[in-house]
């Protein structure tokens, strides 16, 4: 009987295989997700910081990482006269020798318009008449500026003796005790709470600083940087597409003697470090007086690129030669076949090469730095942002805002063309 039960509860080999497969796929997915999360964490932090100001950055060290501001309660100071609570105003003379700010309580009238009567909070026997911003002080008419005496009080969640929690505004903070006021009755009886107010939870609200982007845009002169970078990237992209397509077409279709050896030499240049060719190329461009211009950043791309040639050649090889032969029978030459057959069928890889070059030109920092030294009007976005970081190194929120602005266009271009981009990277995507 026991043997029969063991036989019945045994898992079938097929089900066991499926369970193992699900487990492996789950582990791989979890590991990939964790890696992606770790990779994106700096971008997330930079994006959140770009919406903060200095105070919020300091506050986030001990609180929420989000841009948060304390919720404040406006508490108008009052002065009690004959059992009546009167609102207090700051009064500052705008002329005369003495311009000391005084505190007067409004007895009657409206200080915003018309005639009003005030009493001095230091002496209840002194009254002043104010009309259209002019007060009589020491029997002399004096222009005064009147503003309400309002204090911004922070709101805390204060535990009560019965276990409940109340939202109260802190009027007076002390080391071991705090005086609170009731939000519903701010001028009623004050509430004394024994304890350190720093241990209480403060009421906060989400308050992103959208003005950081406008400020960063204006300070960094992003319009000029965008224009310069787009000019360099687009012109270089046109050059690399024309030259790389022609070279890849020759490697893919023409019976050139020693073609494979030449192609291996070309591919070998990919591993050639930029530092090896830096001094000779700089000396050459300096000799022909191209330094201080965009020419060293654009013209070399009109002479093809090994990586782009490799991508294009591999894609061209997947296209059936029968189409070329059919076009030749109809009298088409090599350039006609390239223009009418190869290029229309190769848009995915062409888009991929375009994106690769666009992102390369957008991020290129070292070559624009050395070739455009002393020419700030020609700087691309990579050099402009780096100089902005040097100048505003004490403004991390603006630095992160500039970085986010610099990412907008490449990310947008990638997302609108990602379908072609992925097809182009997978170079065997054409059925023969």
CATH architecture identity of the largest domain: Orthogonal Bundle
Please describe the biggest sheet, giving its number of strands, its sense, and whether it closes into a barrel.
6 strands, antiparallel
Please give the number of β-strands. Answer: 15
Indicate the proportion of strand residues: 15-25%
Structural class by SSE content:
alpha+beta
Integer count of domains: 4
Radius of gyration: 37 Å
CATH topology name of the largest domain: MetI-like fold
The outline comes out as elongated
What percentage of residues falls in helices of 4 or more residues?
40-55%
Write the CATH homologous superfamily of the largest domain. Answer: MetI-like
Number of helices: 16
Query: What distance lies between the first and last C-alpha atoms, to the nearest angstrom?
Result: 61 Å
**Stretches where pLDDT falls below 50 for ≥5 residues?**
427-432
What is the CATH class designation of the largest domain? Answer: Mainly Alpha
Overall pLDDT score: 87
